[in-house]
Automatic annotation (TrEMBL):
Species of origin: Streptomyces justiciae
Coiled coil feature spans: none
Pfam families for the chain: Methyltransf_25 (PF13649)
EC top class named in words: transferase
Transmembrane segments: none
Protein name: Class I SAM-dependent methyltransferase
Length: 258
């Protein structure tokens, strides 16, 4: 996972440049997640762990909406920036640098665990995904809710795209262009991505390139791993229905038998 950590450590200062308005996006995404949480758990208040918090895109929005949020991320730089960004907006957001397979939290202390932005896909084996789902379950209370967002990998494994369309964002310093190149492995499931950002500079452009590997987990694969980890009532929510930019999966920890 060191290459994944390096990827996000390097991206942390520039992550917000992928959004036309990062603050507006944090609020918009939080509104969608809030609706899904309330639908499954009721009004709350709820304690949330964002276990792949990055620079705080979902965590800050949820904290601003009244949730009690703790963040963790494999990238120490991203986690530190999340806390700083939250503080700059008058929001308390404690964070920790942590691997989602080994979360530094006591059992059964969260009502909700969020793992967004395709983060789970950086785990490249069944064993690693199972370890992460198991530790998320460990820190959730009985009946607690897991919220995952992933790319639509069923479709992507069929089409095997080699790139993503360029995103052009207007910033105070000029236009920023972001795109990815994808290099599929022979197994047809994993791919290396090259993430490029072209950022305005005095003499033209600064090009930043970062490389990571992802596993294009299909819904049947993930659903099976969730069942084996002790989750039930798996539901998939399409972007067309939620307004979220990726498919969202929600499921709950099986309640302890009495």
């Amino acid at each position: 996972m060191s290459s994944t950590r390096d990827f996000y450590d390097d991206l942390a200062p520039d992550y917000h440049l992928m959004f036309a308005d990062w603050d507006a996006s944090t609020a918009r995404q939080a509104a969608v997640l809030d609706t899904l949480v309330r639908r499954r758990l009721g009004a709350g208040p709820h304690r949330v762990l964002d276990c792949a918090c990055g620079i705080g895109t979902q965590a800050i929005g949820l904290a601003g909406a009244g949730y009690d949020v703790v963040g963790s991320d494999l990238s120490p730089r991203a986690a530190a920036r999340a806390t700083a960004e939250a503080a700059g907006r008058g929001i308390g957001l404690p964070t920790a640098a942590a691997d989602m397979r080994r979360l530094p939290f006591a059992p059964s202390v969260f009502d909700v665990v969020v793992c967004a932005d395709n983060s789970l896909a950086h785990l490249l084996s069944t064993q690693d995904v199972a370890a992460a789902l198991g530790d998320m379950r460990r820190v959730l209370r009985d009946g607690g809710l897991l919220v995952l967002t992933l790319r639509d990998y069923d479709e992507l494994r069929r089409t095997r795209p080699t790139s993503t369309p360029p995103q052009v964002r207007e910033t105070p310093d000029g236009r920023v262009i972001t795109f990815q190149l994808w290099h599929w492995h022979e197994d047809g499931e994993r791919y290396d991505l090259e993430h490029f950002q072209l950022i305005p500079a005095a003499d033209g452009w600064t090009t930043r390139r970062r490389v990571a590997t992802s596993w294009a987990l299909s819904r049947p694969q993930l659903t099976r791993l969730l069942a084996e980890a002790g989750y039930a009532d798996v539901m998939w929510h399409a972007p067309e229905a939620t307004g979220f930019y990726q498919p969202v999966m929600t499921c709950q920890v099986r309640r302890a038998s009495t």
